[in-house]
C-alpha cells in the first residue's frame, strides 16, 4: 500500500486560470458566467489571461508571468508547494504551442499532486457546481519521495 499524505483544502480555494490564445474568450465567458461562485475564492492566472479576467470581470486576480515566459512553470511550482488548489486550463489541443513541454509539465504536476483540473468548459462547470468545491476537502497525495526511496533501496542505492 503506497504511503499517502492528506492535504487539506479550505472552503476558500486558490483557483488558477490559464487559457491559450485561441481559448481565452471561452475562458472569459466561463468566468463571467460563474462570477458569483468565483468571487468567493482567490483567483490566480498567468499574465495575459489574468489581465483579461481582471479587466472584464473586476475580479481580483494575482498574476504570474505569461505562460510562454515562465508562467506555466511558476504555476507548477505553486502546485508542488501546495499553494494552489484548483487548475482551470483551457488549452488548445489542435494548435501547437512553442511552450508545449511546459504545458505538459504543468498538467503532469497537477495530476501528480492530485489537484482538480478542468481543461474544458464542461468539466469546469461540473467542478464549480460540485458541493466539494464550496467546502473543505482533503486531497490524498501519494508520497512520491517515499516511493522513490523504496525504489532506490531496492536497487542497492540510497
Automatic annotation (TrEMBL):
<dbReference type="GO" id="GO:0005829">
    <property type="term" value="C:cytosol"/>
</dbReference>
<feature type="binding site">
    <location>
        <position position="24"/>
    </location>
    <ligand>
        <name>substrate</name>
    </ligand>
</feature>
<feature type="binding site">
    <location>
        <position position="99"/>
    </location>
    <ligand>
        <name>substrate</name>
    </ligand>
</feature>
<dbReference type="InterPro" id="IPR018148">
    <property type="entry name" value="Methylglyoxal_synth_AS"/>
</dbReference>
<dbReference type="InterPro" id="IPR004363">
    <property type="entry name" value="Methylgl_synth"/>
</dbReference>
<dbReference type="InterPro" id="IPR011607">
    <property type="entry name" value="MGS-like_dom"/>
</dbReference>
<feature type="binding site">
    <location>
        <position position="20"/>
    </location>
    <ligand>
        <name>substrate</name>
    </ligand>
</feature>
<feature type="binding site">
    <location>
        <begin position="66"/>
        <end position="67"/>
    </location>
    <ligand>
        <name>substrate</name>
    </ligand>
</feature>
<comment type="similarity">
    <text>Belongs to the methylglyoxal synthase family.</text>
</comment>
<dbReference type="GO" id="GO:0008929">
    <property type="term" value="F:methylglyoxal synthase activity"/>
</dbReference>
<comment type="function">
    <text>Catalyzes the formation of methylglyoxal from dihydroxyacetone phosphate.</text>
</comment>
<dbReference type="Pfam" id="PF02142">
    <property type="entry name" value="MGS"/>
</dbReference>
<feature type="active site" description="Proton donor/acceptor">
    <location>
        <position position="72"/>
    </location>
</feature>
<feature type="binding site">
    <location>
        <begin position="46"/>
        <end position="49"/>
    </location>
    <ligand>
        <name>substrate</name>
    </ligand>
</feature>
<dbReference type="GO" id="GO:0019242">
    <property type="term" value="P:methylglyoxal biosynthetic process"/>
</dbReference>
<keyword id="KW-0456">Lyase</keyword>
<protein>
    <recommendedName>
        <fullName>Methylglyoxal synthase</fullName>
        <ecNumber>4.2.3.3</ecNumber>
    </recommendedName>
</protein>
<dbReference type="InterPro" id="IPR036914">
    <property type="entry name" value="MGS-like_dom_sf"/>
</dbReference>
<feature type="domain" description="MGS-like">
    <location>
        <begin position="5"/>
        <end position="158"/>
    </location>
</feature>
Amino acid at each position: 500500500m503506497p504511503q499517502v499524505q492528506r492535504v487539506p483544502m479550505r472552503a476558500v480555494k486558490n483557483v488558477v486560470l490559464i487559457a491559450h490564445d485561441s481559448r481565452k474568450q471561452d475562458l472569459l465567458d466561463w468566468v463571467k458566467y460563474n462570477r458569483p461562485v468565483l468571487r468567493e475564492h482567490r483567483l490566480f492566472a498567468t499574465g495575459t489571461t489574468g489581465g483579461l479576467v481582471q479587466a472584464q470581470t473586476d475580479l481580483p486576480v494575482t498574476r504570474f508571468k505569461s505562460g510562454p515566459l515562465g508562467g506555466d512553470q511558476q504555476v507548477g511550482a505553486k502546485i508542488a508547494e501546495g499553494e494552489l488548489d484548483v487548475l482551470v486550463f483551457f488549452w488548445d489541443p489542435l494548435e501547437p504551442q512553442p511552450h508545449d513541454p511546459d504545458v505538459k509539465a504543468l498538467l503532469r504536476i497537477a495530476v501528480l499532486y492530485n489537484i482538480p483540473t478542468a481543461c474544458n468548459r464542461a468539466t469546469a462547470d461540473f467542478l464549480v457546481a460540485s458541493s466539494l468545491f464550496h467546502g473543505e476537502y482533503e486531497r490524498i497525495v501519494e508520497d512520491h519521495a517515499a516511493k522513490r526511496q523504496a525504489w532506490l533501496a531496492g536497487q542497492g542505492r540510497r
